[in-house]
Amino acid sequence: MSTADNSKRKAPAGERVADYFDGRLGIYSLAKANMRKIFPDHWSFMLGEICLYSFIIIILTGVYLTLFFHPSMNEVHYHGSYVPMQGVLMSEAFASTLDISFDVRGGLLIRQIHHWAALIFVAGMVVHMMRVFFTGAFRKPREINWIFGFLLLVLGMFTGFTGYSLPDDLLSGTGVRFMQGAILSVPVVGTYLSFFLFGGEFPGGDFVARFYSIHILLLPGIMMGLLVAHLILVFYHKHTQFAGPGRTNNNVVGMPLLPVYMAKAGGFFFLVFGVIAAIAAIATINPIWALGPYRPDHVSTGAQPDWYMGMPEGLIRAMPGWEINLWGHTLVLGVFIPLVLFPLVLGAIAVWPFIEAWVTGDKREHHILDRPRNAPTRTAFGVAWIAEYMVLLIGGGNDMFAQYFHLSINAITWFVRIGFFAVPVIAFIVTKRICMGLQRRDHDKVLHGRETGIIKRLPHGEFIEVHEPLTQARLHTLTAHDQYKPAELGPLVDENGVERKAGRMEKLRVKLSKGFYAEGNQITKPTVDEYKEIQAGHGHH
Amino acid sequence: MSSQDIPEDKHLPSEQGDAHHAGVAVADDPFADPGLPAHKPRIQDIDERAAKRSERTVAMLFTISMLATIGFIAAYVTIPVDKIVFIFPLGKVSALNFALGLTLGAALFCIGAGAVHWARTLMSDVEVADERHPIQASPEVKAKVMQDFADGASESAIGRRPLIRNTMIGALAMLPLSALVIMRDLGPLPQEKLRKTLWAKGKLLINQNTMEPLRPEDVAVGSLTFAMPEGLEEEQHDFQVQIAKAALMIVRIQPEDIKDKKELEWSHDGIVAYSKICTHVGCPISLYEQQTHHVLCPCHQSTFDLSDGARVIFGPAGHALPQLRIGVNKEGFLEALGDFEEPVGPAFWERG
């Protein structure tokens, strides 16, 4: 080593610290790959950031709350500063939540930030998932990351549920009772599961402590792991981007992490946190003091779970009360079918990427996003899924809808029962038509140019609207997407003349492929020749 | 069935990247990628005064954040935790919560707004392209890995010594059983617990509002009364578990309006007692419509007809509410004539 060289110039302190860590962690190689990493810009790419940041906010505020919350179901008489509850018998969990809300300065704020951030976290994940779905960002190589994200959503829902059950208030206790009733419906083992989860009969004295460890340790621990894996994969795969001039499948165009995204994404964390803090300042969430402590024989009307549990709530409310009693056993279909449908409805969207990959047989990497219209079947499926979700949300709040819109609750329930099957089908058909219409418009725009709104009168009296040809950048953007051709059954006779039978799966795949990509299911994009021909024919049409 | 026997490539679009790749003779292909557009300078890039203005804006935002943090501390110290103020249009709110939330929100938001404004107006917005590299390894790398794996596997002799392999799989497969077994003490076995409640012959019906034993004359036609068994105290350690099963609702119906024969037999002078716990998933039923004798569970809207054996007339519940047989003792108080004859609450596998 040339010590003579180094002794002349003493490196600045920051560099010496970096050298220290590089010698032990290899940070320079890490920074070389990532410090100036390019991220593309699009508003929809912020949705995932909202999820990440609200997760961080939840962890920060959650740690604070654990300092004051007592996860115990021991019954105590309340003697805190909230007068209406003086002397009321309640669990320590509920009493300590009252203390956090009324006696700890800033406790109410942190509690409300925690709860609001949780609501926003799950909502953010759903919207982020929709962004990924409708733009086809889940395609190879990102299918595994799609699954990680989906697991985060499901775990987020259950972390939320176990979290809002902790204060042991009247509303959340009712939700826990619902969950226990659903567990009881599981054939053969349901009763045992319920006894093991609750340490005996409902409600017992254990579930708050058990939910607590699930809520603050088990589920967030798993989620933290998944989240880190999710982010590592985002870095490793590099970000997707929309088609456009200079943006190809082999590059990623945007601005570097240092400084632009360090400032933008870092700043966005503060924006999200600031907005949630302001919401927590002005909008009360989960006022447990107004509800009172849980008693299994008390209930309030208009009992609603947090929004992300509205979907299973809808399933259970709409399901007819089927019960089969045979050989001394009861099969509680009226509750068990909703319990099974819950993961199935959620999972329908999660398996789509694999179905699509199987139908297309496409093994290439995809880094250019689809515009939703250019994948009509996928978009229609996604909208159908959202429609199903919405129907179930309406079902979950059927009493509220009945009350606020002066409707019959029976009519709403019947709407949900029929709509569960009908609405997704209608949504699918309508969405597909809209996508095709938009594809046609793009097609016309490419061939005939943009409508300028200028009406011109020709010498012989005809009126025409002047169309302005698109720039090459626009032309490229509108024609950059790939279009699959429908698959065909392979030859049924091989080169030696031996017949083979097409398997059922193969036939299904061809059928689906035709449903996705055959004529009538997508608009063939304009070719260069078509364009030239029309442009040659003096442009106006 | 493998997808291998389907000619996959036929319906795939042409290979990626070569269709409209930058650099194709542009004149020939009007749809070709014209490449990245030239950078359009922002006002701050060309006008130093505008850049200065941006700088001041960012600095001002950061300064507001500092002031807001000071405000947060001041609010924490000065505003009493129990002070309630009226703020339009929110109504009466906790002054401390409102002040802390807004100052914290402003302190955070202004940092974010400052950073984003700085990035958008003063940092370079020249777009650059990074190349992507295939995720998949090259054939050489793959061959090397496969060879390494084969070497490692053969050196371990796992393939040649199936006895080791099989016993190892067996050991690893059995180990999780311990984790399963150790869960046993999470709770007791159900046994008959879900079939029994505190109700028994001779137990008085205690009015939950007055905590006094009920007499028939206390129950007016059209009223809904909640009761629990004599001897159950709120202070008891298993109160919640017991009330979750024993909660009772009592209504009085004109005896001639009672359609169900057994219901009439089990009633006393038109007074009928039913389990308050919904047979759907266990919410307490609390809404009574006296004209129709319907009760409604507010959770999932299961509706039961109390004049007809509490059968389900709407909603997701699967069976009628269990009825408690009641009578009057010598002192003229309402009493239970036994426990419920069937399990109360949600159905379960062993219910039968």
UniProtKB/TrEMBL annotation, chain A:
PROSITE patterns recorded: CYTB_NTER (PS51002)
Coiled coil residues, start to end: none
Record EC number: 7.1.1.8
Transmembrane segments: 45-69, 113-134, 146-166, 178-199, 211-236, 265-285, 326-355, 375-395, 407-430
Reaction catalysis annotation: a quinol + 2 Fe(III)-[cytochrome c](out) = a quinone + 2 Fe(II)-[cytochrome c](out) + 2 H(+)(out)
Cofactors named for this entry: heme
Protein name: Cytochrome bc1 complex cytochrome b subunit
UniProtKB/TrEMBL annotation, chain B:
Top-rank taxon: Bacteria
Membrane topology qualifier: Multi-pass membrane protein
Main location: membrane
Organism for this UniProt entry: Streptomyces bambusae
Pfam family, any one: Rieske
Domain Rieske: 240-335
CDD domains (UniProt xref): Rieske
UniProt keyword NAD present: no
Keywords: 2Fe-2S, Cell membrane, Disulfide bond, Electron transport, Iron, Iron-sulfur, Membrane, Metal-binding, Oxidoreductase, Respiratory chain, Transmembrane, Transmembrane helix, Transport
This protein's name: Cytochrome bc1 complex Rieske iron-sulfur subunit
Protein family per UniProt: Belongs to the Rieske iron-sulfur protein family.
Transmembrane segments: 58-79, 99-119, 163-183
Residue stretches in coiled coil: none
Lineage: Bacteria, Bacillati, Actinomycetota, Actinomycetes, Kitasatosporales
Localization (cell): Cell membrane
Function (record text): Iron-sulfur subunit of the cytochrome bc1 complex, an essential component of the respiratory electron transport chain required for ATP synthesis. The bc1 complex catalyzes the oxidation of menaquinol and the reduction of cytochrome c in the respiratory chain. The bc1 complex operates through a Q-cycle mechanism that couples electron transfer to generation of the proton gradient that drives ATP synthesis.
